[in-house]
Structure formats: structure tokens, C-alpha cells
Amino acid sequence: MQKFTFHREKTRAFTDQQNQLIYRQDELLSFINLPFSIENFKQQIETKRNAFSDEQRSVLHNVLTKDYKNIAVSASTKNNINLLLNKNTFTITTGHQLAIFTGPIYFIYKILHVIKMCEILKTEYAEIDFVPVFWMASEDHDFEEIQSIELFNHTLTWQSEQKGPVGRFNLQGFDEIKNEFASYFSGDVLTEIQDLLKNYEGESLSVATFKFVNRLFSKFGLVIVDGDRAALKNNFLPVIYNELETEFSYKEVLKTNELLIKEGLKIQVNPREINLFYIEEGIRERILRIEDGFFIEGKGKFTLEALKEMAQSNPSCISPNVVLRPVYQELVLPNLCYVGGAGEISYWIQLKGVFDKLSLPFPMIQVRNSLLWIDSVNSKKIFKLDLHLEELFEASVQLKKRFLEVNAEEDVDFSIIEEHFNQLSSELIQKVQKVDSNLDKYAQAELVRMEKQLISIREKLLKSVKSKHENALVTIDQIKNKLFPNGGLQERSMNFFNLCASGDVDGRLKYLHSVIEPFEQDLIVIRE
Questions:
Q1: Are the C-beta atoms of 310 and 302 separated by less than 8 Å?
Q2: Residues 105, 109, 112, 118: what is their CA dihedral angle, to the nearest 10 degrees?
Q3: CATH top class, domain 16-230+325-370
Q4: pLDDT per residue over 344-379, tens digit each?
Q5: How far apart are CA 450 and CA 434, in angstroms?
Q6: Tens digits of residue pLDDT in 86-128
Q7: Structure confidence by residue, pLDDT tens digits, 487-516
Q8: At what angle do helices 187-197 and 505-515 cross, to 10 degrees?
Q9: Cα 373 from Cα 371, distance rounded (Å)
Q10: Domain layout of the chain by residue ranges
């Protein structure tokens, strides 16, 4: 295995704003608390310590103890759960939807990122304990986004007509997709995969995902938090009341959006007047402000007092949307830093005003590592074509053009011809100007026409050469499609288990853990 890094700006895969969040957070001080750095954790620790109570720690510990009660858990995860009662323990958090079989491989990268960060921070701040947390976004409803994966060039899709929060889906029909998944492995490999799949079960997708992710990462001490818990929502009730009474988050985000626009920055999310949902099994509907109260599709009208009473008696029926979910998370966790994808982190800079309004510490934010995995097959193809890694980030058209220019240099080398033509042109113009300057424009025009003819001849020759190198050009397309599917980053479509054809899931995770570098800002490339 070889490891390389490339500045993200050179890859052209990230926007200017995303690169600013990665490399230049000091330019965004109006929209964050502290720029991400290992030194700034010292100040963030003190800020969070003073704002997070023993009672909040106790509630979190009780919820986790209950959730892990009947699950096989490693000693390191059990220890981390107990450490959360200690005022010198803090979390580093990432989160994601409940994608089947972990979905795109960046699901794996972001979890390993927070795990590795906690390990590094412990060496820098020996007196502090750091716990890696995965926040399961079990209340999301975008089932179409998570129901499929690509595995060994096949699409696996869980078919279900269920609606509402995906975490509350039952697993009807899920055994079929598990069997299909297992069918792509055989022999001893299948035995290992089946052992893993035994943990992928439960009364709901939330429970199954909890157990599956725990099986993958418990050895690293990962702690999983499911936000769909009434005891955690109790801590969130004051924010719910404030939102219903004053629409504070809508007002604060709008003010921040105006400042972002003035700075030439992109608005990632648009707030609602009420940034809350009503949820129950099969239902996830916006809470809408109307003239005489509130309205929920399928449930009817509510007064403010009726809605507050409902939230108090059943906190689980109220769910934050994208604007208030970070607030909820930071209320229930002793969190120092949130790690996410470049697009995800972009909307966090819209939220500091919301946090300030609640006197809630705004965490440090960081864009996770991005990795490009070049397998042995494509590595051999790249070597055979004598392509440089940095060239792989070019568009296919440019890459193929460059390949033809290099490899057809002798066939289509017009450098001497162009040199002779330029010399001839110069001598001709001098001769015309000496004999009859009135013919100067005519001569210039004729030379332009001749130059175009030369270009045309060269293009025809290139076309002829292209046919000779057709196999190589097809291979370039294959490489690009494998490394940048549909023109995007590989990590956004490739599933982790494509790297586990041998069945050595734990070995692959261990290797990825070794190459993840939380304080590395550049794109990481792994070449087999």
C-alpha cells in the first residue's frame, strides 16, 4: 500500500467555501467560535466544562446504559460510557443517516476520523478523556437516500412502503436484502460475513443499525447515541418551547444568512418559521405556524399551550429539523467538536446566532478526511498507461487529450513545422511590406488561412492516432468511472464492503484507522 496526499484545491472536487472551511477557518470568525486546531481544544474544554452539568451527564449515561443493556459491548466502549459521568470527559462527534450496510464509504471514514482524533487528543491532553460518538440520525425520513448500496457492480435495494422516521421502520423484508448481500461472498469469507450479519437485526432499523455499527466499531471504543430518546428530549424541551413561542431560530438564521451573503458565501439551508417536526410511527410532518396557532398535517390544529403540553407529556413526538438538530445534539453531549462532510459543515456556519441566543457553547467544527482508494486492478492500469496521480483529477476529455499528445508525440509532432511556418510567415510579411505594403492585409489573411489548414491537418492526424490508441482511451474512462463515479468523489457512492471481498472486515477497518489523519487537511490517496 502507498499513501499520498493532495491539496484539495488541486483536485477541483471542493468548492471555494468548502476549502475555506478546511484550510482557512480564521477567515470565518464571525460565524464560528474557535477555528479548528489542536491548540484551541484547551479553550473549548473549559468553555464546555462550565456549561455542561452533572445532571446532563447523568441523563446521558442512563440512556446509554439502557441502550447497551442487551448488546455485546467491548470493554473500551463500556469504559467510555462510564467515563462520561466524569467532568473531565468530553466527546468528539459525527453523525449520519441510518444507511443500509453503512451506505457510502464516507460513513466509515467519518467514524474512524473521530475515533482517531480522540486517540491523538489524549496524547496532547493527558488529564482529559475523549470519547468518540456516532450520532444516529434515526429521526430522518429520506428513505430513498439510504435504501440502496452498490456492491461488486450490483445494486442492492431494500424495498419498503413504510413512511415516517426511518429509525422506527420495522425490518419486514430486510432478511431478503441481507441474504442477497451474503450471496456475493462464499466459502470462509461467507462465514465471516454471516457472523457479522447476525448483529444486523432487531425490532427496528434503529436497533439493527445500532447493533451493526457497534459490531464494527466497538473495539475502538465508539459510543453510539440515538437521539430518538424521550429522556434526552426532556433536556431539549426548553428549546422546543422557545421555538414555538418566539420562532427564535428562524430569526437568528435569517440574520446570519444576510451576513453570509455579504461575505459572498453560499447559503446551505433555509430555515422554517418553526424548525420542528411532529413524528410518530409512519408520520413525520412539519409543525406549521398559522394565524390562530399551529397546524400538523394529519393531526389538525393546536394552540400553543396544547402543543407544549403534548411535547411535555410525550417528548419523543417532537423532532428537530436540520437547523435545530445541532442544538439538540450539543445540549445532550459534552461535545467539543463536530466532524462532518464538507457540505454538512457548511450549514453549521449559519447556526452560531442560534447557539448564542441560547447561551449554548458552539463547538469547533471540522471537515472530515476524504480518501480516494485506488485498488490493485486500477493501480496496474494507471501504471501501464504511465499516468501520474495528479492527472487523475483532470476531466476525462483533458486526460485523454494529454495522453494522446504524449503518446503520439512522434506521429503528431508539429513543433518543427510550426517553427518553419512562423519563420516563413515572418519572411513573407517582410517581403510583402518591402515590395508592396498595400498587400499586407491580404498576406496576413492568407497566412491565417494557411495556419487554420495546418491545424485542421493536425486534428485529422490526432483523430487517426486516437483510433490507434482506442483501447487506452477506453481504459482511461474505466479508471475515471471507478475512481470518480458519475464525476463525483468515489467516497460518496462506493460501499465499504467492496473492499472486503476477502471477508477480512476487521482487517480493512484496522488499516483505514491507520491511514486516517484527523489533523491532515489534504485529500488522502491510498494506492494498492
A1: yes
A2: -160
A3: alpha beta
A4: 999 999 999 999 999 999 999 999 999 999 999 999
A5: 22
A6: 999 999 999 999 999 999 999 999 999 999 999 999 999 999 9
A7: 899 999 999 999 999 889 999 999 999 999
A8: 80
A9: 6
A10: 16-230+325-370, 234-320, 376-499
